[in-house]
């Protein structure tokens, strides 16, 4: 076997020299970097269809539109419209699909095969926390796009309840005097449409939709920002929506709009009630915080209302400030109300006469420039001078709002720190949305308080403790996410193909998340802000990723053991946004990319990294300290949203098996392809007959590069288009007839099973095992949640990145198949070689590897690399070139050995024997403390001790007699290293 055809076998002495470092390298985890804040993006933007032609303005603090623009891109049709009942029709569409198609399993999907990942230090946006009024250990919480979760042990563990409600975007929760739960859906500041109001009479186990709140009939229910329940009258609920205040007295069967003001111009600022509170000393009185710097007052339990300006705050119709108002009553001092106003980065007002008159107390600036997104206020019911304000930061006042100090330090380790306030490291996540006292709070024996933010849910045992003077306080904030609360919003996920299961995900406001599975698994944050599109270079042990607007970075996991370093790699990537997320990218960058821009590593060549902005960019030295980029496709001249120059690339597809076959999809639905992708100037062809909605993903079949799949955004039928002739013609007939008319996000094929397709959509995962001729759904794992990205870990494990429920893995059920691992020997080369590939074995028999090769007959069984039982581990195959170095092969199922050798290969200079990773060859088991299993046989490994003569070799055999003969000949016995099926 020549050096170009097979790889060098590693010497046992070299392994011994590395042994101490391999385990450490495998166990080491990426360190976090300081968390940098990135202003969230606010606003609502779409024209409602009914019943009032009011145009909500878009309060976007970001010049790029950010998350709002991303939501719109993926939900609107070609004319920029989203149906008012978008979320309600999601569930209807899924139900109709199940009625027609059933829950037939396809492509190996089964309920018991899902594994949910996430939790730990990485959380997600929490909009509401609801303690049970009589049970201190029971709480519910509402996640931004993750639904309702419940704990009965004080937050130690959580479980999702109500997975199949029409919208998992929960912004408000309330429990009435009869212990009936209500949730309001829709998130106005981020544009996520809701589906109205739901109620539960059994603690959240089941939920009933309230038809009177259907956004399709009345779009006021598209966003329900706050609800409160009458403290003594069951069924009396007050709801603040983006188009006024509604009241029900019959548990939600009927609702009356009780507050609406005439819009100012085309705006209706004062109609949006973001906050409503009952006076804790008088249930007839309520105060509502309105968008526009005003409040509304009611003295008859919410039947009638009168508006009261907080101060002389001019409404800037052209500006970006929403002037949202959040309120907090001080129960111990009747009539005292605090108000946090989204003005000047956060003004704190106070009223001591029930809201009739207001005094500006201070300007804590806690809201920064995003008070419409994160804005919350809490007043101690037993201390009228203690108040906490949350926005970007968390601050506390002990003098009635006159002065403030940071209130964010906690008990986590420095590796989990987020950012710095006043030169003090803080460990609690920024961006606060909810603060609430525990059940039974009395200001003395019980001082427990909960809060929700973009990092999950936190608890402090003594809210009056002093956190101002020390970073790590024993009584500080404690993170309650644990491993069971999985509400992370992933834009993208990637998986390492080697046997060590590394995963990376780009998460909303949680940066890029790196995790490993198995014993001692860790989940760590390695970037700040919003993480986007990750790609893993397994050979170099590097992770490439973007944060918002194409700011590209790289982290070399093995570069500095114990001190992982992240580098910006966008020095001349001109479509990125300079400093948009704290990344020092290209000087003079034009900021011409989507908020979530694609970054793709060529599956055929890890030295080709592609990025999509206005142009398609290529770097051929991504491992360099400062990679260089050049455009290989010019910008589109097409129109998007009525303008030119914004039709950015939203999807990139590269054929597995050919770097020349590259596809790109744009915001307006344009699709381009080239078959000369490695040329200096590739030639591009434009496709026709496709929708004018955003292209969300492109997949090229690895066995047939003319078979191409493209998914599209928007609420429209047939968002999956297929071409069997390389793009000459397209069809969506089957998708339109079978699949729900919802946005599709990602499509992929099983690497080793032609025809097995997996489709990530707005309402979960769908699968086909006949190239899309028939589809089925089995969402028992990810539930009714957005599946934003699909990736593969090796050849057998599907990875789902969901926007609201974290990540899932699924190993599709396959028949467990065994293969024969053949052994060859070349006497002239003194080279032993093994393969489980019958085609490769036949080629060696026919002389394709050169003369002198023959089979030894010492074969053993293994599992196919894509179908092995739980104890199976995929085997890495390495080769060392003949010059320089021994011509030999080495096989290992040890993740530590595999990763260590791959990392060593990257760092080995030219002219020195180099380990070349050839991929995964078959699957085998590792021995346990008691050796191999009852239905397995041991595989012995022996080493010839000839590294000093440049003739190292290894033998693998299941025959103990053969192993003993090798030892008698001077070979070093290494014992049983693997277990094969008997």
Question: How would you summarize this macromolecular structure in one to three sentences?
Answer:
The protein is mainly β. The protein contains 7 helices and 69 strands.
**Structural class assignment:** mainly beta
Q: What characteristic shape results from the CA principal axes?
A: elongated
Distance between the termini: 29 Å
Low-pLDDT residue intervals, each spanning 5 or more residues: 1-64, 316-320, 410-425, 559-563
* Average pLDDT score: 83
Number of helices: 7
User: How many distinct beta strands?
Assistant: 69
Q: Identify the quaternary structure here.
A: single chain
For the largest sheet, list the strands in their spatial order.
1-59-58-57
Report on the biggest sheet: 4 strands, antiparallel
The percent range for helix content is: under 10%
Radius of gyration: 30 Å
How much of the polypeptide forms β-strand, as a percent range?
Answer: 25-35%
């Amino acid at each position: 076997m020549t050096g170009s055809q097979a790889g060098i076998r590693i010497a046992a002495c070299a392994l011994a020299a590395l042994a101490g470092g391999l385990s450490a390298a495998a166990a080491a985890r990426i360190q976090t970097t300081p968390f940098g804040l990135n202003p969230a993006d606010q606003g609502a933007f779409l024209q409602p269809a009914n019943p009032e032609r009011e145009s909500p303005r878009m309060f976007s603090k970001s010049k790029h539109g950010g998350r709002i623009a991303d939501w719109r891109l993926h939900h609107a049709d070609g004319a920029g419209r989203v149906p008012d009942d978008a979320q309600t029709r999601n569930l209807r569409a899924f139900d109709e699909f199940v009625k027609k198609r059933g829950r037939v399993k396809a492509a190996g999907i089964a309920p018991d095969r899902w594994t949910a990942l996430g939790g730990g230090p990485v959380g997600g946006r929490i909009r509401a926390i609801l303690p049970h009024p009589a049970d201190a250990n029971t709480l519910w919480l509402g996640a931004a796009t993750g639904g309702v979760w419940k704990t009965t042990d004080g937050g130690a563990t959580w479980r999702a309840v109500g997975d199949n409600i029409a919208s998992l975007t929960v912004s408000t929760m309330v429990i009435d005097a009869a212990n009936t739960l209500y949730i309001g859906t829709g998130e106005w500041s981020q544009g996520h449409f809701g589906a109205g109001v739901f109620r539960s009479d059994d603690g959240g186990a089941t939920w009933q939709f309230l038809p009177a709140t259907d956004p399709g009939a009345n779009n006021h229910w598209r966003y329900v920002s706050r609800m409160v329940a009458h403290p003594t009258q069951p069924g009396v609920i007050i709801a603040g929506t983006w188009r006024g205040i509604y009241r029900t007295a019959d548990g939600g069967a009927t609702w009356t709009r009780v507050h609406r003001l005439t819009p100012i111009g085309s705006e209706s600022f004062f109609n949006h009630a973001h906050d409503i509170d009952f006076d804790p000393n008088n249930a007839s009185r309520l105060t509502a915080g309105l968008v526009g710097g005003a409040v509304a007052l009611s003295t008859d339990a919410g039947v009638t209302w009168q508006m009261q300006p907080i101060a002389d705050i001019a409404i800037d119709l052209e500006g970006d400030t929403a002037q949202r108002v959040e309120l907090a009553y001080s129960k111990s001092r009747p009539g005292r109300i605090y108000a946090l106003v989204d003005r000047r980065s956060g003004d704190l007002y106070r009223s001591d006469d029930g809201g009739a008159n207001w005094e500006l107390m201070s300007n804590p600036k806690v809201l920064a420039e995003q008070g419409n997104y994160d804005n919350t206020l809490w007043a101690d019911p037993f201390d009228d001078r203690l108040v906490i304000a949350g926005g970007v930061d968390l601050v506390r006042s002990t003098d009635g709002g006159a002065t403030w100090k940071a209130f964010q330090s906690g008990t986590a380790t420095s590796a989990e720190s987020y950012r710095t306030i006043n030169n003090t490291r803080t460990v609690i996540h920024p961006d606060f949305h909810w603060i609430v006292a525990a059940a039974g709070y009395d200001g003395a024996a019980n001082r427990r308080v909960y809060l929700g933010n973009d990092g999950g849910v936190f608890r402090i045992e003594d809210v009056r403790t002093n956190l101002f003077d020390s970073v790590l306080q024993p009584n500080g904030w404690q993170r309650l996410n644990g491993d069971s609360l999985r509400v992370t919003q992933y834009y993208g996920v990637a998986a390492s193909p080697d046997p060590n299961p590394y995963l990376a995900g780009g998460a909303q406001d949680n940066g890029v998340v790196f995790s490993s599975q198995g014993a001692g698994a860790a989940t760590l944050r390695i970037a700040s802000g919003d993480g986007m599109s990750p790609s893993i270079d397994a050979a170099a042990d590097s992770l490439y990723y973007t944060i918002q607007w194409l700011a590209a970075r790289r982290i070399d996991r093995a570069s500095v053991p114990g001190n992982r370093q992240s580098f910006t790699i966008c020095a001349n990537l001109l479509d990125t946004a300079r400093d948009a997320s704290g990344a020092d990218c290209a000087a003079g960058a034009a900021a011409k990319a989507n908020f979530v821009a694609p970054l793709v590593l060529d599956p055929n060549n890890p030295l080709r990294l592609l990025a999509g902005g206005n142009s398609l960019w290529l770097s051929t030295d991504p491992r360099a300290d400062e990679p260089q980029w050049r455009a290989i496709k010019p910008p589109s001249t097409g129109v998007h949203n009525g303008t030119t120059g914004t039709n950015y690339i939203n999807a990139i597809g590269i054929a597995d098996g050919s770097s020349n076959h590259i596809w790109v999809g744009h915001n307006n639905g344009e699709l381009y392809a080239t078959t000369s992708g490695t040329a200096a100037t590739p030639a591009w062809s434009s496709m026709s007959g496709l929708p004018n909605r955003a292209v969300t993903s492109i997949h090229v079949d690895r066995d047939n590069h003319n078979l191409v799949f493209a998914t599209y955004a928007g609420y429209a039928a047939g968002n999956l288009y297929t071409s069997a002739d390389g793009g000459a013609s397209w069809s969506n007939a089957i998708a339109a007839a079978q699949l729900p008319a919802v946005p599709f996000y990602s499509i992929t094929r099983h690497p080793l099973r032609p025809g097995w397709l997996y489709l990530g959509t707005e309402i979960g995962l769908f699968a086909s095992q006949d190239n899309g001729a028939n589809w089925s759904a089995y969402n028992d794992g990810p539930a009714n949640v957005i599946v934003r990205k699909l990736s593969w870990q090796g050849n057998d494990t599907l990875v789902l990145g969901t926007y609201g429920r974290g990540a899932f893995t699924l190993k599709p059920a396959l028949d467990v198949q065994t293969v024969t691992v053949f052994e060859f020997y070349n006497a002239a080369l003194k080279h032993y070689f093994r393969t489980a590939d019958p085609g490769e074995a036949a080629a060696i028999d026919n002389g394709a590897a050169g003369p002198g090769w023959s089979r030894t007959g010492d074969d053993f069984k293994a599992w196919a690399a894509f179908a092995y039982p739980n104890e199976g581990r995929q085997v890495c195959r390495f080769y060392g070139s003949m010059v320089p170095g021994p011509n030999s092969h080495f096989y290992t199922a040890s993740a530590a050995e595999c990763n260590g050798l791959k990392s060593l290969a990257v760092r080995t200079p030219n002219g020195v024997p180099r380990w070349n990773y050839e991929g995964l060859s078959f699957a085998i088991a590792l021995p346990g403390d008691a050796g191999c299993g009852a239905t397995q046989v041991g595989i012995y490994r022996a080493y010839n001790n000839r590294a000093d003569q440049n003739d190292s070799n290894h033998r693998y055999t299941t025959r103990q007699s053969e192993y003993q003969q090798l030892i008698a000949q001077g070979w070093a016995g290494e014992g049983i290293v693997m277990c094969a099926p008997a």
